[in-house]
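Section: Multi-chain targets

For targets with more than one molecule, the full set of components is provided together so that the structure can be written out for the assembly as a whole rather than chain by chain. Components appear in the order listed by the source. The example entry contains two components.
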Amino acid sequence: MTGTRIEDLLRELAPQVLGVLVRRHGQFDACEDAVQEALLAASTQWPGDGLPDNPRAWLLTVATRRLTDEWRSESARRRREAELAVLDPEPVGAGPGEAAAPVDDSLTLLLLCCHPALSPPSQIALTLRAVGGLTTAEIAHAFFVPEATMAQRISRAKKSIKQADGFHLPAGTERLPEVLHVLYLIFNEGYTASSGADLHRPELATEAIRLTRKLRAALPEDGEVTGLLALMLLTDARRAARTGADGSLVPLADQDRARWDHAQIAEGVALISGALATAAVGPYQLQAAIAAVHAEAARDEDTDWAQIVVLYGVLETIAPNPMVTLNHAVAVAKAQDPAAGLALLEPLEKDERVSRHHRLHAVRGYLQELIGDRAGALASYLEAARRTTSLPERAYLERKAAALR
Amino acid sequence: MKYLLIMHQNPAVFDALTGEQRNAVMEGHGAFMEAIKESGEMIGTQALGDPANTVVVSVRNGSTVVTDGPYVEAKEYIGGFYFVDVESEERAYELAAMIPDAAIEGLGIEVRPVMFSAGMEM
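Its structure, encoded as tokens over all components, is:
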């Protein structure tokens, strides 16, 4: 079995094993550490020794041993006889009534990791480790921070949850919006230009899609879960076309649409069509619907901008946010006229959430260019280039400015 | 999001502090380091040498020239930095405000975003 396939298998099994341990023993924090150690042991032993007959039982046995070792040393320190009862477990497989409940376990763990007491970076780190089965080193690498920083972030996250409610498992799915937001953030983090230095970055976008698929398996009727999955598939389908050979950004209008992943687009379109027909509409479904309209245009000039204007209008009503207004303005400019789009930007110039954001200046520059205001467009692009903290975005905006000089 | 929290050193300002105030600054840095390590936000921190030990290296007509540079005379120079990874710009400001130098009259913490190599589709 190749390293990649072992890795895939481990990621698949990680939340299942953790789910069983937490149901048996509680103590999410200790169980999570034990599973992480079992995963590390597997990733070093399996490639050489070959795959065990029952990989899930193997992981469960090793994780349980780690857990009891941990308790043993703790109880020795505290001289607590009571805990000695758990010292010599038989190697464990799934007990009666514990036949894999992987779907529900993943959902429970996702809800637990996206605890409202945590900041988004901590929710993301914990989710990737406990549910995604990534190692601390891989997560650290993906976010370009030292492993010690990421390890501390994860242990602090677990401590915060423990202090907040002692790993009380969330009842129902009231925390689902947080889960969707975390998955969306993981996807966005991964959906980036892969310039040379980032080539070995673990595929966060792929991981986000995989986790969202699991979530949808647990909640197939939820329109927003399906909407988020469709949005990710439709956006990710453009990945090969969105960067040039030199790593530069290629805007949607200039992308070679033959390089889009059409199978993924078909899946995304089918998902969002189904959700819109049956579920209450929500922001992820609307964004997916907009992505679907883009995806269905054979050429940029075939884009149904009128439809996109309507969809952004609804999105602005149910989930108003300056970034939505910016995109709405572009759509209005394309469907009607650029001046109408520019008029929509005016309130944003005084909105401190976005007035200093490079994207406002970039969009203004684009609309000024469309109406023929070259001097205005040049100034806006330069301002946008100064304000972005992304190197490829800066390069793109500087090219736009240079073309106007 | 990654930020460099840069401490500008000004000997005139620092010399004017009482010994007690100076100790408070030193201890404050210890506590700050502990806090951002514990929160999983610290990437690294370094204190930089005095301008007296600082040179400027340049290459002119193929020869390397080492000079004392203009910094020896500077009233203010970079004394050190914290490199942090935080959830938002607001959090970076919050951390900067926790650095003891921020509370000293005449000093402040420069908060600089660090560029990254990912980009959004325009």
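The mean pLDDT of chain B is 91.
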